[in-house]
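Section 3.1: Structural characterization of target chains.
Under the original work plan, the team committed to producing a structural model for every single-chain target entering the pipeline before any wet-lab resources were allocated. The record below documents one such target. The sequence was received from the expression subgroup and is listed exactly as submitted; it comprises 434 residues.
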Amino acid sequence: MKPVVKRSLGVLSLLIVAGLIYCTYQFLKPEGDESSAPIAGAPASMTSKIERGEYLAKAADCVACHTAPGGKPFAGGFRFNLPFGAIYGTNITADRETGIGNWSDDQFVAAVRQGISPHGNLYPAMPYTSYTGMSRDDVLAIKAWLFSLPPVKQANRTNELSFPFNQRWGMKFWNLAFFDNHRFTPVTSEDDELNRGAYLAGPLGHCAECHTPRNLGFGLNNSKHLSGEVVQGWFAGNITPDQDTGIGTWSDAQLSQFLATGHAEGRSSASGPMAEVVQNSTQFLTPEDNVALVKYLRHITPIKSDISAKVNLEPEGASHSNAILPSSQTQSQGQQLFAGDCSGCHLWNGNGRQTPYASLKGSTAVNDPQGRSIVQAILRGTHLNVKDQTLIMPDFGDKYSDEEVSAVANYVLLQFGGKQGTVTAKQVAEQRKN
């Protein structure tokens, strides 16, 4: 038997055993209801159901997973690369043949909050494990807004999963082991603003789905809630208030600015999936909700993650350089490539030219010795539409070899993070492939 098959069967066996262990608990546990009404997701000033639904859909970032690059909004086709294959976001427009135009209210609520669609169990790339906390009114407001948009006839793509992960019935065991079907309950000892921030970050914004490490069964490891994870090759940093490895030294103004614009002075800019979150979601939050979200992030339990990724705000290389000249000239391949293709925008001191979004100092990415997000940015570039601005870093994946990407990445880590990078050509090849 091939090793990959053995591993796949081993994981399936683990899920089945875990399901049996939790089976009694889950079946005896009452299903979540509306007895404890969660905080309404949309501001009280929004009275129209469709207006509320639009705000909620943006806060929940629905468009990101249900829109293919260059495709029509919500028509599906976005590809999720997984260790065991790929799945595709589905068409959630009101088209009756290829979308959800025939779904009842109850069917839509079950899909969003329990991961059960009329066609069977959903895979948890659809973050129903977080959306489960939403109120029924909020879920149906999103449905009302989606149904107000023009339907798009576009067939859903077939998932490409290896056995046994292509067996949807296996998700029943996964749900028994890792899914807690419940509604959000405000903490009575906390004020309304903090509880609102918790609802925005949890059920709606589902921050944990990217920023919380996964366990062996690909469920969330809640003992390390929001302490950082790798998503689509990008490093989603620790967003707990830990002073060394999280956001503990960020000011409220920096956090608020980052969520609203994708850039925080002295902390660099959003890229990759986080740029998409800002573009599609957090920039549209009201100022009050922005403040509530920041307040919540300030009050969660701090968790210390990899200390080697602690942000160095005064790296020697950048601090001793000026805009047009580095502090020291070397013959390294990384510096030479940076001089030719990167220094014109980022500058040798990392302050950025023409736009602050090109700044590098203070960034989580340039302080991760593994350079995961740097490699992704070099290979794929990054794109952000925010506040009537279009900001683009071009990709160099076709121009640079794996060795050249690793050389540039390690130079950037040294110059702007003061870190000895560990990026190798092999790592770049893996990230390029995935």
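Residues 43 and 297 are 20 Å apart (CA to CA).
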